[in-house]
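Per-residue structure
===
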Amino acid sequence: MIKVNAVGQTCPIPIIMTKNALKDIEEGEVEVLVDNKISLENLQKMSKEMGYDYSIAETGEVFRIVINKIKEEVEEFEDEDNTVVVIDSIYMGKGDPELGRILMKGFIYTLTEVEVLPKTIIFYNEGVKLAVENSESLNDLKNLEKRGVEILCCGTCVNFYGLTDEVKIGSITNMYNIVNKQMYARRIIKP
């Protein structure tokens, strides 16, 4: 069993340390220690995405997740029409904030009307505020998600703004996944 001590580390370090440990073995277990729920949730999501079984134990303020690597990693980013939209603000462009807010609302609405949808929309930094209750764009985002668009929110950003319980669309993810989605994208659009 390979042991990874990621106590005191924040996103994306625990994910990267764990991925590196998993690369070192063809099959077997990797034990990871973390001290925050966001890292634990990110490791759970990563394990599920990779098709690995895992178990969790909590001792005081430390979480222990044991990941059982039993098969080859599945590449999830091979789509031909893999367009990713990245949104880092509640405003589109620079200048007047009210105009920027109107433009962003219009941009997201227009995504619901185009023929070719993006595969993924990633919200990070202040952009995560568009995925919460009372967001002017929430209904449009729900429409996009129903039509198969993956909606992702940066977990570090959601946590930073204190919005963990207010995100109403998509899923919370980590920086490792955000970088991978962009690296394997055929096209990245940033309004």
Remarks:
- The first helix runs from residue 13 to 23.
- The two ends are 45 Å apart (CA to CA).
